[in-house]
């Protein structure tokens, strides 16, 4: 197949566009990305595609292009991985994408989904959200790891480093889960402990706390590989129930044992995946236990790496391939019913 890929420029294009379609290229498909960087769309790259894959909130120019290709005979797969309608007020993106704006954005995405032969989402709650809006053919495809990052361990320091990859939207966790106060007490109790965060600033004492506002996605696994424990607290709010489990997979890829809230994507995971689930009032005990027990960290880290290998895109790329093939078949069947032309 010749597959065109067009997307809204977001960090998660790595999991929803780059990783799966590079894997399909390795399988022998002709994959064409329309952007090399933000604002660099090139429509000519999509000429002759059998199927076009679109990610998230495509702009008007991209939608016009996709619809032209569909009228010319291409199939269309559309993918989404967020429910902006449930964005919490603590999110820095709430003013732009929350409240009434969220409802308008969701309505627009439904119109895009209606144009698609197949819709893909990252989680079951998102599938249900679009099914309730009348979208019939939806496939849940998880976020899977680039095999190149699995085993990216970089530890080799004294003490114990606890890390959190926390985008700014995780500000919604802080008033609901006492994670910052717990980390403060842990630093007081254990002189060998240090804390690191990527994204959200936790405001901890700088002499034993490392914070990066942002880090290039290609350096993420290198950073995680320096941590001895990764944490993933999630408040029990609607937005978090639609998240994916990819943060824990990133920790696991580095052999970093993890602790996570039993919410949404993390419910049902545990020691077999290299970590433990923690109730909102259990973080102090859970962190203290892993700090004190090096063997537990080693044992969980070994299980984490095994889980990460099973979550490599190479183990799951056939599912992405089948969705593209199905979309082409659906488009051809519809074209046959309409005398060889499809208008939307």
Give the tally of structural domains.
2
Number of strands: 12
Sheet with the most strands: spatial strand order? 2-1-3-4-5-6
Give the rounded overall mean pLDDT: 90
List keywords for this structure.
344 residues, alpha/beta, Rossmann fold, six-stranded parallel beta sheet, 12 helices
Describe the structure.
The structure is a single chain. By secondary structure, the chain is an alpha/beta fold. It folds into two domains: 2-144 and 313-337, 3-Layer(aba) Sandwich (Rossmann fold); 148-310, Glycogen Phosphorylase B (Rossmann fold, 3-Layer(aba) Sandwich), CATH 3.40.50. Helices cover 38% and strands 16% of the residues. It has twelve helices and twelve strands. The chain has helices spanning 13-26, 60-71, 94-97, 99-115, 124-132, 179-189, 220-224, 238-241, 246-253, 283-292, 294-310, 317-337, and strands at residues 2-7, 30-33, 51-55, 75-80, 118-121, 138-140, 160-166, 193-199, 209-212, 229-232, 258-260, 275-277. A six-stranded parallel beta sheet has the order 2-1-3-4-5-6, sandwiched between helices. A six-stranded parallel beta sheet has the order 9-8-7-10-11-12, sandwiched between helices. Helix 1 links the parallel strand 1 and strand 2 (30-33). The two termini are 23 Å apart. The mean pLDDT is 90.
Q: What would a concise description of this structure say?
A:
By secondary structure, the protein is an alpha/beta fold. The protein contains 12 helices and 12 strands.
């Amino acid at each position: 197949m010749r597959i065109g890929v067009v997307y809204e420029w977001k960090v998660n294009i790595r999991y929803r566009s780059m990783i799966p379609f590079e894997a399909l290229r390795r399988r022998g498909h002709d994959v064409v990305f329309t952007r090399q960087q933000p604002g660099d769309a090139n429509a000519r790259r999509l000429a002759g595609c059998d199927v076009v894959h679109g990610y998230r909130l495509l702009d008007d120019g991209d939608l016009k292009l996709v619809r032209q290709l569909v009228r010319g005979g291409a199939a269309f797969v559309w993918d989404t991985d967020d429910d902006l309608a449930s964005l919490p007020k603590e999110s820095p993106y709430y003013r732009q994408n929350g409240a009434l704006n969220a409802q308008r954005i969701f309505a627009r995405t439904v119109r895009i989904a209606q144009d698609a032969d197949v819709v893909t989402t990252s989680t079951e709650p998102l599938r249900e959200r679009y099914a309730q809006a009348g979208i019939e053919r939806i496939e849940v495809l998880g976020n899977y790891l680039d095999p190149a990052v699995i085993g990216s361990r970089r530890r080799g320091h004294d003490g114990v480093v606890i890390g959190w990859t926390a985008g700014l939207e995780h500000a919604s966790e802080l008033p609901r889960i006492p994670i910052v106060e717990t980390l403060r007490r842990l630093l007081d109790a254990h002189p060998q402990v240090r804390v690191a965060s990527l994204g959200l600033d936790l405001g901890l004492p700088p002499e034993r706390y490392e914070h990066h506002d942002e880090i290039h996605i290609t350096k993420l696994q290198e950073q995680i590989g320096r941590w001895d424990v990764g944490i993933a607290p999630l408040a029990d709010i609607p937005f978090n129930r639609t998240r994916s489990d990819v943060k824990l997979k990133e920790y696991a890829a580095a052999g970093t044992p993890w602790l996570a809230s039993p919410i949404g994507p993390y419910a049902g995971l545990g020691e077999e995946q290299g970590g433990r689930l923690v109730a909102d009032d259990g973080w102090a005990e859970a962190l203290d236990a892993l700090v004190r027990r090096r063997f537990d960290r080693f044992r969980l880290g070994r299980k984490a790496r095994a889980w990460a290998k099973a979550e490599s895109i190479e183990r799951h790329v056939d599912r992405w391939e089948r969705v593209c093939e199905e979309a082409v078949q659906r488009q051809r069947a519809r074209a046959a019913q309409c005398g060889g032309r499809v208008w939307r």
